# Entry
Amino acid sequence: MAFKRFVAAALMALSLASCGDDAFPDYHYKMTVYVGGQAFSSVRAVEQEEVSSVVDSTGRTVKTSMRGEAVIIDHPNGRTYYALLSKPGSPQYGAFAAELALMPLVTKAQRASTDNWTGGNQSGDLDLRARDHQAMVAIEGPQELRRRVPVDELRRHSGSGDPDFPAWPMFVTFSDPADPRTVREVSPDSLGVERITIEITDEGVTTGIEELLAWLPRYYDRQLSGSTTESLRDQQESGISARLGAGSFSAGNGLSPYQ
# Structure
């Protein structure tokens, strides 16, 4: 019954989407990480704008930006951990994290509404993508972010054969919080992450991470290793600190001189 109600709500949102001027909606989402029976959250803002493009065959594309911070986890063991906004290979992870949890619900609702629905390739049809995003932001309540998401569930077409997408954020801590070079990755299993949820919300964007990491404003133009380049040698010598920057912890909150 709950899924049927969602189908109805999603389809109504889709019909309304075709009438609005703002095809790609801006939205806030809350990521909540559950560890040791406690919930740790961060609210982020995602802004989407349809712009012209000389690369895309349609002449249009969507520019996506995000404001927000990593989820701060005050672990029962006394250490502080961070669920990052980005990770190596996915620099814009935080801007699309909500889609990883919510878009599969939209595609499931669409497929359930018709026997022969196949849709189009989302990467080439902005109108279809806009309708799907309107439906996505209409979803109410916290939804599970699975650890891995089948790529086909994120698209209107299926059968790509692509591997599942690792949907959880990267977790890190610092041996010395005052020294960004001491960052180290922590697996969600060793951290004891029980589950992660995503929820569309009207709450304000989370701020204040610089109170814990006072060095953040000095690292928006360099890696945590101190390097201003991402050379292979630096990565080999410095490890994960050479692949992360301040933007993995905070984005769009005015800490960076380049924002």
About this structure: Residues 230 and 242 are 6 Å apart (CA to CA). Residues 1-5, 11-20, 114-123 have pLDDT under 50 and may be disordered.
